[in-house]
Amino acid sequence: MNELQWILLGFATLVIIGLLLLNQFKKKSKVGQPGSSVDEADKKTASSALNELGEAHIPVSQRTQARLAHEEDDPDALHPEDIPDSQLALDGLGPVPSPKTSENNEPPRKPKHLVIQDEELRSVHDEPRPKSVDDEPDFGIPKEAAPAPESKSTTEPDVSPQVFALIVMGTDDFPWPRVNQTLQGVGLVPNEKGIFVKKDTLGNEIIRVASLLEPGTFPIDEPTNDAHKTAGIVLILELPSTVKAPAVMHDMIMMARKISQRLNGRLYDQSRHLIKESDLQAMRDAAVAYESSAV
Question: In the prediction, which pLDDT does 182 show?
Answer without folding.
Answer: 95
